[in-house]
Structure formats: structure tokens, C-alpha cells
């Protein structure tokens, strides 16, 4: 029995093994799907919406996007949101995670002028979700900063904390009577990569500076919004509010102490920098990372560390400011200092840690260059989080597979099945996972990859003005998993016609 379990998890997919067939997700565990405003809404300049950094980037520098596309129309969810909710009912989800577009509500980013049409759009969306008993989860910021605020420095200006607090106040005040599940920021590492590299808007490429400054200011903005909710809104609204990180799975390349330390330092640089200030015992940035960047900065002749530390007062202000650990997970790799190649800019975060990663060729490659399927990846990253912050309450807020255009998606089907087996493995070990939100409800604008990489349970026809959505096989498989609360590897849909089950 024990051996069977070990073998199954080593192979990631355990086809039909009796030991696993009977495992059920507990009653408290919630299932859902997620999307983000810029990736789906379109209507980029309709009804008073202001310009954001992705509108600006895609319009002024279209060649930065693989297929020169943009989110001007995207899935046109601004006009099709009722169809989106019909799809949620077809799937039978209990939670829908979407983000609110800052510049749709505050066209200039600042709170002196509120665009009522933007408020109406989200009110309609929320009311329609509640009509069908679907719990809304709002991501307050999913990468689409108002362009006006970018011109004032964006996340490199410490005033971002005040601007974000003002915006969050409007979100809580306007939607918090009905929405009880909030996340402040989605994937700060990607937000800040727009300052420390060319990886995302606004593509500032201030390597080894902009990313660290952004991390610091973003954490203070998060903490301000958390305290605002906690002090002024929670007493009457009674919801929860958290923070959403991207965590990939990592294992040391060898058993050496150096490689084990490499995994630790890599975790500190890629997610601990955002999570230790909130969830660790002492607060503040991770110790070894702080020492490393300080030493590197000194050796490079700087009189101060490029990673500016928090004051004791700021540390205390940030510590404990999250009701749950929201985590997005995709790829995995082996990590080692021996894999480091000196091809990174100096200074830069990658040069600071001197680390390399490795994904064997045998691992299945998704349509995204950065995303390979590490065996047992979901179980591994959940163990990493739980080891760092024992007992922390985890929601997987994004997870899914990327493919090319097309309706056939056997790889995605296999991905979801093995990912959810990984969640069950973690639950068996007592890891405190409370929910799973698949990414994504439908194909959408995949940032720098445009429409060339597809993550949808539903395919979207971007050549059709109606943006017709068609369920892929994975939609039927995920629906069955949610309905039975089990992963049945032998389940095949009776037909490929979607219907809404009773009660949805
Ligand atoms: C980005 O910045 C680094 C220096 O930190 C530089 O080497 C590189 O050429 C820059 N890239 C672009 C496209 O400007
Ligand atoms: C788009 O929707 C309109 C209105 O429902 C319909 O008349 C038209 O046939 C649709 N077009 C396509 C290509 O599905």
C-alpha cells in the first residue's frame, strides 16, 4: 500500500489506482475559476474608462507583444459578462475570481473623480453572480495601473501606498456589502518585473533597483489596504482579505548543502521577499537575501544596499496583514548555484543570487517557454509553503496549463487531474489548503504572449466579433471533479454539449 502510494506520486498521474480513487475533497474546500480585467474585458476606452499601462504599452510599442496584439477587445467581457456567468453555471463553480480595473473606476488613478459607469459594470457583474449563488472574489490589482500614476512613478513612488489605499477604500465601500473575499495584489513578482526588467509593462528595466524599490512600496501599499479593511470595513462587512503570490516548485539539483541553500535563496528572492514580511515570525525581508544584496551592492561600490530595508515600525505595520496565503502555481525546476551562468545584467536580482535553474527535456513543455510540467509539482510547492509558514491557510488562486489555439486539450486534462491529485496528497498530510481556482475560465490576452498562448477551459474565437466561447474537454473533466469532489481518471464526458445542472 505504502509503496503503491509512493509510486503513484512519483509518476504524478496514478491511473485508476484503488488507493486514490476514494479520496474526496473535504466539505470546506471550495472550487472555482479566475480571470483578470485587462485580459478579458476589452472596452478599453468605453464609458469613461481611463488609459492604463497595458493600453499604453500595447498601443505605443506593439512589437513588445509576441503577436502585436492588445486587450482593446480581448474576450469583450464588458459586453459578454452574462455569457461568462452562464459558463460559470455550466461548470458549477462556487467561486469566481475576477479583478477590478483601477482605471475603469478611477480614470486618472486618483480618487477625485469616480467613473460611475465603471461602478455600474462591476455592480451588475456581482449581482448576477450572487443571483446564482456564486461567491465573487475580487483581486483589487491585477497589473493594470492607470497610466497617469505611472507617469508619477508608479510603484517606484512611495505615494503608491496612499493612492492604492484611496482606490481600495472605494472598492470596499462600493462592493464590500456583497463581496466577502478580497485579494490586494496579484503576483507582486510580475508587477515588479515591469520595473526591474523588460518582462512586463511598464518595461522600465531598472535592473537590481526598480524591482527592489517596487517590492518595498508594494508591501506598504498592501499593508495600508489591509489595515483599512480590518479597521474600517471588516467590523460591518465581515469578509477576508489576502495577498496573492506566484510560487513555482523547486528542488535542489543534488543533495549537497550548497544546492539546498540555493533552493532557500531562490525561494527568498522569488517569493520570500514578498511573503516573509507578512507571514514570518519576525517580519522584514528574508535575512540571507538582505545580506547577499548588501554585500553585492558594497562590492559594486554603492554606499547603500540596493534593497532598501524597512524600519522597525514599517516591519510591524506589514507583519500579519493577510488572512490567507493566495498562491498561483505553474512551473517547476531544479535549482543550483552550479547552474549559474554570468549572462545577467549587473546589477540585477538574478546576478545578486547567482543561481541557475534546470528542467529536464523529458518534462512536458507547455505552449509557454517558461512553463514545464515538473512531476508532482503541486504537491511540492504546497510543501514548500507549509514548511516555511507551518499551518498557514492556503488558497490556490491560479493553476492551469497553456496550449496553442484549438479545442483538443488532452494535456490540459492530464494536468488538472494530476494537479488535483497533488492537492489531495497535501490534504492527506494535513496541509491547510482551502480552495482551488483554475486558470482560466477562458482563453484571454496572455500579456507579452498576446493570444499565442491559451489557458482556457473554454476556447474563445478571437476572429469572431461575438467572441464565441466553446468548452474544451478539460471543462467537462473539471466540472466532473467539482461535482463528485473526486478525481476520476477514467471519467469521459457522455457528450460535448454543456448544460447547466439543477441548482446552478
Ligand atoms: C536592460 O538593462 C541592462 C542593464 O542593467 C542592460 O544591460 C540591457 O541592455 C537593458 N536592455 C534594454 C533593452 O535596454
Ligand atoms: C453573433 O451574434 C449575433 C446576435 O446574437 C448573431 O445574429 C450572429 O449570427 C452571431 N455571429 C456569429 C458569427 O456567431
From TrEMBL:
InterPro entries: GH, GH_1_N_CS, Glyco_hydro_1
A GO BP annotation: carbohydrate metabolic process
Gene3D superfamilies given in the database record: Glycosidases (3.20.20.80)
Tagged with keyword Flavoprotein: no
Keyword set includes Electron transport: no
Pfam families in the record: Glyco_hydro_1 (PF00232)
Name the record gives this protein: Myrosinase 1-like
